[in-house]
């Protein structure tokens, strides 16, 4: 069974930065395209950043130029570096498989990001 453990969220002022981490176990991590999703209260979960097994990346327009996704295959870890944070970036952030077969059947607990002065 796949387990995903996200961490690194917190409270940050507008314009600040955070770095999220996600450790994945129970899957052949290196072959999967992975992504960061977020869900704000009252909104649907959205995919904001994707990284393929080969390291190619793709971003939602709302975060392009501010967020950077990266991965470490041997350690089954992906990161999301978030800079120039805005109040509208506040959400619970989750990692999971992206594109192709879609998300794994299970989700982690997510990590809360709050952007407020």
Strand proportion, as a percent range, falls in over 45%
Rounded mean pLDDT score:
95
| Class by SSE composition | mainly beta
Helix content: under 10%
Order of helices and strands: EEEEEEEEEE
Give the strand line-up of the largest sheet: 2-10-9-4-5-6
Question: Rg, please?
Answer: 13 Å
**Which geometry do the CA atoms define?**
globular
Q: Which stretches are poorly predicted, pLDDT < 50 over at least 5 residues?
A: none
> How can the largest sheet be summarized?
6 strands, mixed
Folded structure, characterized:
The chain has 117 residues and is mainly β. 0% of the residues lie in helices and 47% in strands. The chain has strands at 3-7, 10-12, 18-25, 34-39, 46-51, 57-59, 67-72, 77-82, 91-97, 111-115. The protein has a 6-stranded mixed sheet with strand order 2-10-9-4-5-6, with no helix packed on it. Strands 1-3-8-7 form a 4-stranded antiparallel sheet, with no helix packed on it.
